[in-house]
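Re: that chain you flagged

S.,

Sorry for the slow reply, it's been a week of failed gels. I finally had a moment to sit down with the sequence you sent. For the record, here it is as I used it:
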Amino acid sequence: MMNQEIERRRTFAIISHPDAGKTTLTEKFLLFGGQIQVAGAVKNNKIKKTATSDWMDIEKQRGISVSTSVMEFDYIAPSKPPRGETSDAVSSPPGGSEGGLLYKVNILDTPGHQDFAEDTFRTLTAVDSAIIVVDGAKGVETQTRKLMTVCRMRKTPVIIFINKMDREGRDPFDLLDELEQELEIKVRPLSWPINQGAKFKGVYNIYEQKLDLFTPDKQRVTEKVSVQLGSPELDARIGTIDAEKLRDDLELVEGVYPEFEVETYRAAEVAPVFFGSALNNFGVQELLNCFVEIAPSPRPTKAEERDVNPEEPKFTGFIFKITANIDPNHRSCIAFCKVCSGRFQRNIPYLHVRQQKTMRFTSPTQFMAQRKSTIDEAWPGDIVGLPDTGGVFKIGDTLTEGEQLHFRGLPSFSPELFKYIENDDPMKAKQLQKGIDQLMDEGVAQLFINQFNNRKIIGTVGQLQFEVIQYRLENEYNAKCRWEPVHLYKACWISSDDEQELEQFKKRKYQYMAKDKEGRDVFLADSGYMLQMAQQDFKHLQFHFTSEF
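Prediction finished late last night. Pasting the structure tokens below so you have them in one place:
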């Protein structure tokens, strides 16, 4: 039973540079998964329904994602043995209903903006594979490179989706070359576009060796027609010139790229590439069908003590994200827990390792962005929402059935922008304090309290975060805040084995010392030169630039 449940789980993140089309692709996956009947749009004057995964007010107004949202649905994939293999070779999940296999898909839609990169990096620790979205006209961009580096370090298998083929863009072969060079990974196209821009006719499915022609529709699923590559019907449907070019291109693809093998993809050596237009539903279903078939089911997770296998009977899991105010009527926080092994059950006591307390959860939930439903059990690969009243959880906490385990790799980075936060409405001091506490628990930004004048300093990675914090304090907590400039270069955590030297350093740098939320010592350097001098003068001190040390 347990192995069957694990086999049918697919947990993945959708990552890319801003505006390549992550949220639109997520929305279309939900449409094909039957979760929504009509897709919303991120930015569109005619379509008033906003995207499901952008549920915060600020996300709807600006048309960007500022926080990772979690969605899950059951998907029935059409059953068929892939070409060149017998049906035994691909692990087929059970629970097949008529006409296909039932998969459980967990999507994490991440923000693309660099200012929220931390949230995205943390999300990547909780997934088994990723889909990278690339804009067909712009190619690989800075944020795409950074995220790919993280995937390479963690050996996460990736599938690349080249989006916006319905706009004039670059030649598909040039794009494939750029992907190989920039992302340092071998590629293998599994679908191929028929023309592009205004003349875009659709996508040929190389993986299943068939052609599906759609009529474009931005909000609903349309019927499709299957056509054979060699048949004259192809010429009739897409025109002789395009048909000839398609046959030549495919011959070239088969000649240049080696046969696709699932094992090389799962070992993160090869990235399958799909073309399409998420807005018009082109190429999305081909991507989803192939993805659920070849993507890895939940994999072992590294803990400090040992590797944890998903098949183990005992439950373990870690918290990778905390979100405040999913429901504005109840000022509650929800902690997102990734199940690593065993079976999670409702109302069963589990050990919270950091606090050494036993806790039981009466209403664990599963998500559809903002809508949530209570569940009784969850299996490895699932993301469970645990109600968090009064700061019980921090990012990186571990839950087990009694074993002492610590999952690592969820860092906070050293911030680069700093501002003093001041109360703008003296009557609302309590609300402001609560708001800051809950938002900092989310890991949106970091709070430092200056030891010299006791003022609060907020440190972030990007400018946009200050605006999001101010907006959310005002709308969710009814508290007004004001930013005041402070000139700092970097904040770094300090530690030392030499107590005497540490005390001496604190005395000498008294006005630059602060404490973070955990009460650890933080040194606020106001220039690169000052940081360098401090490192030279105090040889026995360690300066850390991430919070994990």
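What I noticed first: Residues 2-294 form a domain with the Rossmann fold fold (CATH 3.40.50.300).

Talk soon,
D.
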